[in-house]
Amino acid sequence: TRVAVLISGTGTNLQALMEQVKKPSSSAEIVMVISNRPGVMGLKRASMAVLFVCQVVDHKLYGSRAEFDGTIDKVLEEFRVELVCLAGFMRILTGPFVRKWSGKMLNIHPSLLPSFKGVNAQKQALQAGVRVTGCTVHFVAEEVDAGAIVVQEAVPILVTDTEDSLSERIREAEHRAFPAALELVGSGAVKLRDDGRLVWNQSV
Ligand code: GRF
């Protein structure tokens, strides 16, 4: 499966996905990395692995979300991308784009959805006083942080935790959960049904 990874920042999830697709057993290959911001650490990580194309599509250069998304879509089509992984991609995508890539776009969120949607999910969990949080890899739906869940990993919250220490522990879980979800979807073991439910393909 031809995969594009979209980033906005440090790219540690990108790094984990890059490690995953190197495995002979992997059903995926990363053919493209796109960042909406220039000069981020994630691009440096991508440039280290010369196997694929890196592009910056700077959202500040576009008059509208629709135009930005249209450019992303064109680039994805150009490289015959089959699956998009949003790895710390901090842009809300427009309805038409999300609908077009429905069932072919995954996102990672640092909480056990549906709890703690939106930004600062780690801080929300700390403030809610829960003892367990985690991360979720889900198909992207038009409603933010609400698509069908593919993989989750639970992470304990320690009494000594700060937002930073908790975020770090969640990120470690993300680096296992996202590669696992990539393989499930990339291999066809998991598909998204038209009604938005997940289908496990028992035959593989
Ligand atoms: C992660 O915490 C992820 O949950 C959130 O943004 C962060 C991305 O980190 N979407 P990185 O850029 O993959 O290091």
TrEMBL record:
GO annotation, cellular component aspect: cytosol
This protein's encoding gene: gart
Species of the source: Sinocyclocheilus grahami (Dianchi golden-line fish)
Protein name: Trifunctional purine biosynthetic protein adenosine-3
The UniProt record lists the keyword Nuclease: no
Alphabetical keyword list: ATP-binding, Ligase, Manganese, Metal-binding, Multifunctional enzyme, Nucleotide-binding, Purine biosynthesis, Transferase
GO biological process, one term: adenine biosynthetic process
Protein family: In the central section; belongs to the AIR synthase family. In the C-terminal section; belongs to the GART family.
A molecular-function term among this protein's GO annotations: ATP binding
Shown stretch of the complete protein: 802 to 1005 of 1007
